[in-house]
Write a structure and sequence with these properties.
Blueprint (H helix, E strand, L loop, with lengths): L1 H16 L7 H9 L7 H23 L16 H13 L5 E2 L2 H12 L5 H7 L24 H17 L2 H7 L9 E2 L5 E2 L9 H19 L5 E6 L5 H4 L2 H12 L7 H7 E6 L2 H10 L1 H5 L3 H13 L1 H7 L8 E2 L4 E2 L1 H9 L10 E5 L2 E4 L8 E4 H4 L7 H4 L5 E5 L4 E5 L10 H16 L7 E3 H11 L5 H8 L3 E3 H9 L18 E22 L2 E17 L5 H6 L30 H9 L4 E4 L8
Parallel strand pairs: 10-11
Antiparallel strand pairs: 1-5, 2-3, 4-5, 6-7, 8-9, 11-12, 12-15, 13-14, 15-16, 16-17
């Protein structure tokens, strides 16, 4: 009997392997399984997956390598690589559709929510989908309806902006047509300027950017080796196989009465799939994106990221693994969650590297450069210091943190991160000085080392200045720098009669995904005007003036509010006209942690980071 069953399974696998297109046993097998009273739907689906994987392996072993089926694209076609490698991918991906073990489910639940989590917090995280705004003017913003999951949405939003604004080539190829004015303009080798016509992005382009962003984050968490995708076992493959018109019905039926209130609930409803190639993960995400758009989307994506990293690795990343990742009492995403999605590690701090506390104890920060960065209001309040890894990302996009919310700030021009003449010269001189500093960071060097700095940086000091600096036998950085600020540019200094050498002017945009009533965008109904719920988008003009005096340069102080008594220029040579007083909002304080002394102005309501 067993031999007969094995022979029947082999014949079924052989039939699937002979199909011209990728095998699709999941369409017919459930109907066959329905006639078997002793076979559950879960067992049936598991058998289908095993047979499909076995068939793919047999086919690859028989042919030696993957060969395009009749009618499939050849390698010379634009999509040939995907077509010829599809069976190879399926052969590798033999662990699809696994249920989360009971142990993993309990570890995951208590890692995220801890003990005694309130039903309100669980409801917040179980009722937030990953959806774009329906409002045309803010259609590229992911909308937030519930408090709590904003950290997850903001991180995804930042990557979506990266793909839409700066990396649209793959999206254009996939969609075959994207409006010309959404393509970034290359002005130089390293500078790009994206379009500000946000309403021009097609639904197809946005959907593909979302899929690319989610896949990129999951592989980042998986150390570029794997991505784990968590979905709902009650949905199975119904969404992937159904017509578009039936998708919402299938998801609504699966979510009816579904709630996550305990680790046991998590164990019952989750299904996890592991992918080892980006192409296979993107294909799967594209097929089940309606599941992530449903009310469980944000939670499912957080779980996917944690499982991609590995639960034990997540706990090892943290300074205090006993605390929940979702913080009480309001259910906000912790910094560890945001860092996991931005840099692939659930470290709790925002400084670079790690901080040694002595005695074998240290605090963990961000150890690598990132694609999109992070700024926080807490730095302006002196609660933390964001390192260069997060503050200066590859693309001019930042998640912005406040005490209770996460939003997104970005620029269309990558040049906003370039050093201006003053900043570049400062970096050059400081690097040369630090190379001669043998004091362990004390900020002073020997006379011999000082002369080496002058030669390397082409600084020609008058004899009286040189004698004054070298009189004590060592040179202090602060004294040296004040001399440089008052030294003419022709002699290698930074004295600039125009007062414009350190100035920058550029535009920033700020997204707040929390929907807000807008009467200007109201819709008419039989009951009268209905205010449109739309996210908030603000354009800011930012001017970064030069520092006024050597003293202010050293202090790196912020611009004081209008009418306040501030430091006055101490010398005629360094005095320049001060700008008009800027408008102020907490976001401006965040911007000044990246661009000190920034003056910001906008039209309309002030940007909100809460």
């Amino acid at each position: 009997m067993a031999d007969q069953q094995e022979e029947e399974d082999l014949r079924m696998a052989l039939r699937m392997s002979m199909q011209n297109s990728p095998p699709e046993p999941k369409r017919s097998k459930p109907r066959e399984a329905a006639n078997l009273a002793t076979t559950t739907p879960e067992e049936s689906r598991r058998l289908q997956r095993e047979l499909m994987a076995a068939a793919a392996e047999k086919r690859m072993l028989a042919t030696g390598k993957s060969v395009p089926a009749s009618g499939s694209p050849s390698k010379s076609d634009s999509g040939g690589d995907i077509g010829t490698k599809e069976m190879e991918i399926k052969a590798k991906e033999v662990k699809l559709g696994n249920e989360l073990s009971e142990k993993e489910a309990y570890q995951l639940f208590f890692m995220v929510f801890g003990n005694g989590v309130s039903k309100d917090i669980l409801a917040q995280w179980s009722n937030q989908g990953i959806r774009f705004s329906p409002d045309p003017e803010t259609s590229m913003i992911l909308v937030q309806h519930e408090g709590g999951p904003c950290g997850v949405l903001a991180a995804i939003q930042a990557f979506v902006l990266k793909h839409l604004l700066f990396c649209p080539d793959d999206l254009v190829k996939a969609a075959q047509s994207t409006p010309q004015n959404t393509t970034p303009r290359r002005l130089s080798k390293n500078q790009y300027v994206a379009s500000n016509n946000f309403a021009a992005f097609t639904e197809n382009a946005k959907a593909r950017a979302l899929v690319k962003s989610m896949g990129e984050i999951l592989f980042l968490c998986g150390n570029n080796k794997r991505a784990v995708i968590a979905t709902l076992s009650s949905i199975g493959d119904g969404v992937e196989e159904s017509e578009d018109s039936l998708t919402d019905v299938i998801i609504a039926q699966a979510l009816e009465g579904l709630s996550i209130e305990s680790a046991s609930d998590l164990h019952k409803v989750l299904r996890v799939e592991t992918y080892t190639t980006p192409a296979s993960a993107y294909k799967r995400l594209e097929a089940i994106i309606p599941v992530f758009q449903s009310r469980m989307g944000a939670l499912l994506f957080l779980i996917s990221a944690l499982l991609s990293r590995g639960l034990d690795c997540v706990q090892a990343d943290r300074d205090d693994p006993s605390l929940p990742l979702v913080t009480a009492p309001f259910g906000h995403a912790s910094q560890e969650i945001v860092n996991l999605l931005l840099c692939g590690q659930a470290v709790p701090n925002v400084f670079d590297g790690r901080m040694d506390l002595g005695g074998g104890m240290f605090l963990k920060g961000v150890s690598t450069n990132v694609e999109v960065g992070f700024l926080t209001l807490l730095e302006s309040l002196n609660f933390c210091k964001v390192g260069r890894n997060l503050k200066c990302p590859k693309w001019p996009i930042w998640v912005v943190g406040s005490e209770s919310h996460y939003t997104v700030l970005f620029a269309l021009d990558t040049a906003v991160q370039d050093e201006n003449e003053l900043e570049a010269r400062e970096s050059q001189i400081r690097k040369a000085f630090d190379a001669q500093d043998q004091s362990g960071g004390g900020g002073f060097i020997s006379v011999e080392g000082f002369h080496q700095v002058l030669r390397e940086t082409n600084i020609r000091l008058p004899s009286e200045k040189l004698d004054s600096l070298c009189g004590s036998g060592f040179i202090v950085w602060s004294e040296f720098w004040q001399v440089i600020l008052d030294l003419d540019k022709s002699l290698g200094g930074l004295k600039d009669s125009t007062g414009q050498m350190g100035q920058k002017i550029f535009d920033l945009y700020h997204f707040n995904g929390i929907a807000k009533s807008d009467l200007n965008g109201s819709q008419f109904s039989s009951g009268g005007e209905t205010p449109m719920q739309r996210p908030r988008l603000t354009k800011l003009r930012v001017s970064v003036p030069p520092r006024w005096t050597p003293e202010e340069f050293m202090a790196d102080v912020a611009v004081l509010p209008s009418g306040s008594a501030g430091a006055q220029p101490s010398g005629k040579d360094t005095e320049v006209a001060k700008p008009e007083p800027s408008q102020h909002a907490p976001l401006v304080d965040c911007i000044r942690t990246r661009w000190p002394r920034a003056v910001c102005n906008w039209v309309g309501d002030p940007p909100s980071i809460v």
